[in-house]
Amino acid sequence: MKILIADDEFDIRNLIKISLEENGYTVFAARNGKEALDILLSQDIHLAILDVMMPVMDGFNLLRKIRESSTIPVIFLTARTDDMDKVLGLGLGADDYLSKPFSVAELIARVGAQLRRSNEYLSPKEQVVSTVTYGHLSIDKEKCCAFKDGVLIELGAKEYKLLLHFMENPERVFTKRQLYRAVWDEEFYYDDNTVMVHISRIRSRIEDDPQKPKHLKTIRGIGYKLHYTGGQS
């Protein structure tokens, strides 16, 4: 597995690189967002660990570039602990967020967890049905792409997994905790706000008016469900 680490602090970058390589990963290191983007364009990277505050191109703008064409897992590793920064990062499509100072052992564990879940959803499997369709939405499970009315939807890895979960269980109501367990599979780290941020991002892609969602509906006091008034096509 190839992992990209982008951080302008040499000591942190080197520590993570050595630790990941000791665990069998191939690691590419970048000092800023521009170097990281060049690596992403030239290598088949499976996961990225990004600092937020970097010269030339910061982590948020780098993530925007990544999400234009890729659903690889992205972990933010940053000294910035402001909740709004975390919300922004998750809203842009980040899959996890660790604050400095951090535990190297925990970071390695989270990298492994993200890669396992990514492989479960993003690698081809022996499936009778590779396309899931519900209303005006469809997902190609082999290519890991989602479409609205035949037009490609830009989604991060977690948004893709959430939407797939809803589409494979249409009209079923899920609590936030159930959704977190199904997609993040981390009961201990359950974060109510994380689910809400990703739901909001999906709505911005599939709803005509995200402020008045007709399809990904909130069931007050319970959670969410995917609904299509015209029935399943």
Describe the overall structure.
The chain folds into two domains: 2-122, Response regulator (Rossmann fold, 3-Layer(aba) Sandwich); 131-226, Winged helix-like DNA-binding domain superfamily/Winged helix DNA-binding domain (Arc Repressor Mutant, subunit A), CATH 1.10.10.10. It has 233 residues and is α/β, with parallel strands linked by helices. The radius of gyration is 18 Å and the shape is globular. 41% of the residues lie in helices and 21% in strands. A five-stranded parallel beta sheet has the order 2-1-3-4-5, sandwiched between helices. The chain has a four-stranded antiparallel beta sheet with strand order 6-7-8-9, covered by helices on one side. Strands 10-12-11 form a three-stranded antiparallel beta sheet. A hairpin with a 2-residue loop joins strand 8 (145-148) and strand 9.
SSE diagram, text form:
Blueprint: E1 2-6, H1 10-22, E2 26-30, H2 33-42, E3 47-50, H3 59-67, E4 74-78, H4 83-92, E5 96-99, H5 104-122, E6 131-134, E7 137-140, E8 145-148, E9 151-153, H6 157-167, E10 174-175, H7 176-183, H8 192-206, E11 216-219, E12 223-226
Helix pairs in contact: 2-3, 4-8, 6-8, 7-8
